[in-house]
């Protein structure tokens, strides 16, 4: 494993890692190369990086991209990043919480937008949810996240990892696992494996539904009560038993099944039939 100079930069600036911000900086150059290569960055691309750390990945992105905008919540990292990167015309950094930003204000009129990030574990799901539900015009998201979360995102029906997050991401994206990353590839070392995963945004959502909010409510209700049958999970919608029987019949879904067995297409049919009743 070829080591990056991340630790040297940290020592040089006397930087202290923050546990509350989930800071784990990459030290393995092969992982860095895999992230950049899988993101397929070109001079057409406007790249947003969340959590640049000391700028190790940022430098590579600047070399490849038309422009890079980094978002860093930790203000103590800003002077370090600026010194390490130097004066370049296609880079800027924003000191902010990515969960509170309107990404459209950053993107502006850019047509080819890609997000690349080594996401802190504690914000992985909220950030991915925000980016997808916000209907921003990203082409792709290439992110390093906790392996357990990547497995859930990439999961298929009838396995324990499959859940509401799987449906959310696969509704909007094609998913592909790039590689698993061991704790030894970071400083400080996390306690679990990480995964680089790429989410390629679909031109249109994977399934067409009458009411997107209702679709995701049906999905959430089904997985909030994983051990219950769909019949019991859907009771809180307030539809009469007779009408609910009709809903399941028209959707061609057995009400005795559990949510984890349904494909995204079956969830779409069920949600659309519920929509007719509501």
Identify the CATH architecture of the largest domain.
3-Layer(aba) Sandwich
**How far from one another are the termini?**
58 Å
Number of strands: 9
Tally of contiguous helical segments: 12
Short description:
This protein is an alpha/beta fold and 278 residues long. Helices cover 39% and strands 19% of the residues. The model has no long low-confidence stretch (mean pLDDT 94).
Outline the structure in words:
With 278 residues, the protein is α/β, with parallel strands linked by helices. The protein has two domains: 6-201, Rossmann fold (3-Layer(aba) Sandwich); 212-277, rRNA adenine dimethylase, C-terminal domain (Helicase, Ruva Protein, domain 3), CATH 1.10.8.100. It is built from twelve helices and nine strands. The longest helix has 14 residues, at 264-277. It starts with 5 loop residues before the first helix and ends with a helix. The model has no long low-confidence stretch (mean pLDDT 94).
Task: Lay out the secondary structure.
Elements: H1 6-13, E1 25-26, H2 29-39, E2 46-50, H3 56-64, E3 67-72, H4 78-85, E4 91-95, H5 103-107, E5 113-118, H6 124-133, E6 138-146, H7 147-153, H8 164-172, E7 173-181, E8 186-187, E9 194-201, H9 212-224, H10 230-233, H11 241-251, H12 264-277
Parallel strand pairs: 2-3, 2-5, 3-4, 5-6
Antiparallel strand pairs: 1-8, 6-9, 7-9
């Amino acid at each position: 494993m070829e080591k990056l100079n991340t630790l040297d930069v940290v020592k040089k600036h006397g930087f202290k890692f923050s546990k509350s911000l989930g800071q784990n900086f990459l030290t393995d150059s092969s992982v860095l190369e895999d992230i950049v290569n899988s993101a397929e960055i070109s001079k057409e691309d406007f790249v947003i990086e969340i959590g640049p750390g000391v700028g190790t990945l940022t430098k590579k992105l600047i070399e490849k991209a038309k422009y890079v905008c980094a978002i860093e919540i930790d203000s103590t990292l800003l002077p370090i990043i600026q010194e390490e990167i130097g004066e370049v015309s296609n880079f800027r950094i924003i000191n902010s919480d990515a969960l509170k930003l309107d990404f459209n204000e950053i993107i502006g009129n850019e047509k080819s937008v890609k997000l690349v990030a080594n996401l802190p574990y504690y914000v992985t799901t909220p950030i991915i949810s925000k980016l997808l539900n916000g209907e921003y015009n990203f082409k792709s998201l290439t992110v390093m996240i906790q392996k357990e979360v990547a497995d859930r995102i990439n999961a298929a029906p009838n396995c324990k990892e499959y859940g509401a997050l799987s449906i959310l991401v696969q509704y909007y994206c094609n998913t592909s696992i790039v590689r698993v990353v061991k704790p030894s590839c970071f400083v400080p070392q996390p306690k679990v494996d990480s995964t680089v995963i790429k989410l390629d945004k679909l031109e249109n959502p994977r399934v067409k539904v009458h009411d997107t909010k209702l679709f995701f409510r049906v999905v959430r209700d089904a997985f909030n009560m994983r051990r219950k049958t769909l019949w019991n999970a859907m009771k809180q919608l307030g539809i009469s038993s007779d009408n609910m029987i009709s809903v399941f019949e028209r959707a061609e879904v057995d009400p005795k099944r559990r949510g984890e067995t349904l494909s995204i297409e079956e969830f779409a049919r069920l949600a659309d039939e519920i929509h007719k009743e509501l």
